[in-house]
Design a protein that fits this description.
Layout: H1 3-18, H2 27-42, H3 47-65, H4 69-76, H5 81-109, H6 114-134, H7 157-177, H8 187-206, E1 213-224, H9 238-251, E2 256-259, H10 275-285, E3 289-298, E4 302-310, E5 317-320, H11 336-340, E6 358-360, E7 363-369, H12 376-379, E8 391-396, H13 406-421, E9 425-429, E10 435-437, E11 443-446, E12 453-463, H14 467-475, H15 478-500
Parallel strand pairs: 1-2, 2-3, 7-8, 8-9
Antiparallel strand pairs: 1-12, 3-4, 4-5, 6-7, 9-10, 10-11
Length: 501
């Protein structure tokens, strides 16, 4: 196939891959797109061609998956449309380099043995995803495993987590492409390549499903203010938004009420006189408790994107966001000029350190703030050992990205976190998706996005640890790095030995 046509096929396959994520249930699309990439890279005449194919696929995958970043920069940040589009393209192009290097490594060290090459393709794919998710604070949005929050691979979540799901999905995709490889032996090639990952999927499907047990039920109120991002700090709209929020907080009749990220966008000292004191006094009297998104801190100690917990008989709980968003909450070195071009209330927040959960009425709730929901490996420590959290509460503001699929994608991310740790997850968001998710990753109740509303429902806390929680809390993602690196090193040694013979 001519090089230009080959690149076009990779671009189209990458775009199809981007369509595999929410709001579509596209696990089959994910596998098909990855199989097309494996097919073309297996037939690439040079390592350089394989790298180009990986880069084209990654570029289309990322640009098609996170195009909505354009809205935050152009509509709300004030950047010219051309510069916003260029920024999204540049980010996608840079992150696609990981997949380009991975496909180059695959092409360089493959052996033309279907079983070994399918595993090598999956290992290279995994290394690319780990690099994107970990380096430079990480950006694992639309990681391939999220496409399998529904479908047969979802049973793997409490065992191997999102990266393991992506690894096995890539292994199956390469197995599907094996009969099309240059040295293929037809169906024998498919069986040699596909039997091991299929066995893993089947084993997870028939293994015990529940690793956690009930830890009591409680009712919860989730607030969705639906404040447009360009009105959030407006003197014209802010008083009415604060009045609605305060009224709903104190009128809640459930054990817990949760308000989204920066639901109160002002420091306590900047709020209307008596506003915060009235909220604190109300929840001090009981019987209910509240988790409220609000900035905290001061000029001396630094400012934080935080969740404040108010409950009777205890001092204010405070969780400060730990995993900050580049450009949104801290400015990477050398990019101050870019941030200063945008008309956004951004700045350098201070990172939090304390991960203890909020305790009330026998429940222990682990807050996460928006983007932190992507980093399950950083949450795992809260779901093992004494005092482990029984519920996850995500507070978010996706208003930066308008009425786009970013809302659905973030809900999909939360569903997979619930699957990994077998914990219920409650989501209180500004514009959506405000929802209750059970420990099996199923959405049991939700508000329509981009509407103002209040969601009342019941949550069953859970305790106990999944296999994934136990090993990732102890070792982080190093086992995946070691596995993928080991497969690559073994392929290199075999290729070198073959060349020497």
């Amino acid at each position: 196939m001519p090089a230009a046509l080959d690149a076009l096929v990779a671009l189209l396959a990458g775009w199809v891959h981007a369509q595999a994520f929410a709001p579509r249930e596209g696990w089959a699309l994910q596998g098909l797109a990855a199989a097309v990439l494996a097919w073309r890279v297996m037939r690439a005449p040079t390592v350089r061609r394989a790298a180009v194919l990986g880069w084209c696929f990654g570029l289309a995958w990322l640009a098609g998956g996170v195009w909505w970043l354009f809205i935050s920069m152009h509509r709300y940040g004030g950047l010219p449309a051309w510069l916003s589009a260029l920024a999204v393209a540049a980010l996608s192009a840079a992150l696609a380099i990981y997949l380009a290097l991975a496909m180059a490594a695959f092409a360089r060290w493959r052996s033309d043995r279907p079983g070994a090459d399918a595993l090598l393709f999956a290992a290279c794919w995994l290394l690319a995803e780990l690099a994107r998710g970990l380096l430079f604070t990480g950006f694992p949005w639309v990681a391939s495993g999220y496409a399998h929050s529904d479908g047969p691979l979802s049973a793997l979540a409490p065992w191997v987590g999102v990266y393991g799901m992506g690894f096995i999905a890539a292994w199956l995709a390469a197995a599907a492409a094996a009969p099309l490889a240059p040295a293929s032996r037809g169906l024998r090639a498919w069986w040699a390549a596909g039997a091991p990952p299929l066995a893993l999927v089947l084993a997870a499907a028939v293994a015990p499903a529940d690793f956690t047990r009930p830890a009591g039920r409680f009712d919860v109120t989730l607030l969705q203010p639906n404040v447009a991002q360009d009105e959030k700090f407006s003197a014209e709209h802010l008083p009415a938004a604060l009045e609605w929020l305060g009224r709903e907080l104190v009128s809640a009749r459930t054990a817990l009420v949760v308000a989204p990220e920066t639901a109160i966008p002002l420091l306590p000292a900047q709020q209307p006189e008596g506003y915060w004191d009235a909220l604190a006094a109300h929840f001090a009297r009981g019987p209910g408790a509240a988790l409220i998104g609000v900035p905290l801190g001061d000029f001396t100690e630094g400012y934080t994107n935080s969740v404040a917990g108010l409950a009777p008989g205890q001092p204010m709980y405070r969780y400060d966001k730990i995993h900050l968003v580049p450009f949104g909450e801290f400015v990477p070195y050398g990019f101050r000029w870019f941030v200063e071009m945008m008309d956004m209330p951004l700045g350098d927040f201070t990172r939090g350190r304390d991960t203890r959960p909020f305790e009330f009425d026998g429940q222990r709730i682990r807050p996460t703030i928006c983007y932190e929901d992507l980093f399950g490996e950083e949450l795992a420590v809260n779901f093992v050992g004494p005092g482990q959290a029984t519920v996850i509460a995500n507070v978010s503001n996706i208003g930066w990205f308008g009425p786009t699929e970013a809302v659905d994608q973030h809900l999909q991310i939360s569903r997979l976190r619930a699957l990994e740790f077998q914990r219920p997850l409650v989501r209180a968001t500004n514009t959506g998706a405000t929802a209750l998710i059970d420990h099996r990753g199923r959405v049991t109740q939700a508000l329509a996005p981009h509407t103002r509303g209040v969601l009342v429902g019941e949550v069953e806390g859970r305790e106990g640890s999944t296999p994934y929680a136990r090993w990732v809390a102890a070792l982080g993602l190093w086992p995946w790095t070691a596995l993928a690196g080991g497969v690559l090193l073994l392929a290199m040694r075999r290729r070198k030995a073959g060349a020497g013979a």
